[in-house]
């Protein structure tokens, strides 16, 4: 148990957000195995609240990109852009989506109940972190994004989720081109304190 705990601690503290990846393909079998293991995240409901959509083929990546761009058109992201700037952004996004080996969207169930919705989002975030750690264990980098399109109900529908599901984020996976340096963390005494008995 001690050795396993040490390995887990190293995995957690060594993990980095990776934005620049190789375009080397990642076997889908590897991703499915990671998802199976990540599903052991804790959850409060009777059934795991998360759902995942994967884009791995050229056709799927192009569709994902087009849905994103449709969303940005719809919600006004490009209102202040010139045609030239808009085309540059479009090309940059297209290259990113098509050059990333695996992209996935993760959604959570919505119950229209404050406690249940809070629990579902918390569980799905734990699931996402499990994915990132399991990827890191296999030298697969990940970046967890919460871009504006995930808040667009039309995008959620167009990409294939149900109306009672809410997207929590997108994950983009690939073998790292470079591993970023660790960001310095705050000292423990800046954010940990004892409960003050009788405090008001």
Automatic annotation (TrEMBL):
InterPro entries: NAD(P)H_nitroreductase (IPR052530), Nitroreductase (IPR029479), Nitroreductase-like (IPR000415), YdjA-like (IPR026021). This is Putative NAD(P)H nitroreductase YdjA. Pfam families: Nitroreductase. The gene is ydjA_2. Belongs to the nitroreductase family. Residues 12-175 form the Nitroreductase domain. Its cofactor is FMN. The keyword Membrane does not apply. It comes from the Bacteria. Transmembrane segments: none annotated. PANTHER family: NAD(P)H NITROREDUCTASE YDJA-RELATED (PTHR43821:SF1). GO terms for molecular function: oxidoreductase activity. Keywords: Flavoprotein, FMN, NAD, NADP, Oxidoreductase.
């Amino acid at each position: 148990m001690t050795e396993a705990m040490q390995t887990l601690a190293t995995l957690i503290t060594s993990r980095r957000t990776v934005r620049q990846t190789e375009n080397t393909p990642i076997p889908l079998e590897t991703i499915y195995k990671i998802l199976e293991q990540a599903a052991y995240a804790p959850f409060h409901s009777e059934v795991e609240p998360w759902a995942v959509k994967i884009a791995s083929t050229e056709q799927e990546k192009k569709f994902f990109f087009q849905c994103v761009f449709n969303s940005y058109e719809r919600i006004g992201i490009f209102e202040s852009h010139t045609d030239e700037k808009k085309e540059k952004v479009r090309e940059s996004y297209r290259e990113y989506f098509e050059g990333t080996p695996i992209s996935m969207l993760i959604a959570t169930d919505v119950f229209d109940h404050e406690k249940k919705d809070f629990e579902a989002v918390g569980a799905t975030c734990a699931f996402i972190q499990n994915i990132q750690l399991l990827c890191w264990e296999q030298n697969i980098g990940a970046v967890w994004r919460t871009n504006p399109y995930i808040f667009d109900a039309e995008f959620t529908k167009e990409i294939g989720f149900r109306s009672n599901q809410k997207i929590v984020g997108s994950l983009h996976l690939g073998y790292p081109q470079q591993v970023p340096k660790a960001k310095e963390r705050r000292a423990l005494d800046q954010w940990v304190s004892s409960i003050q008995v009788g405090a008001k």
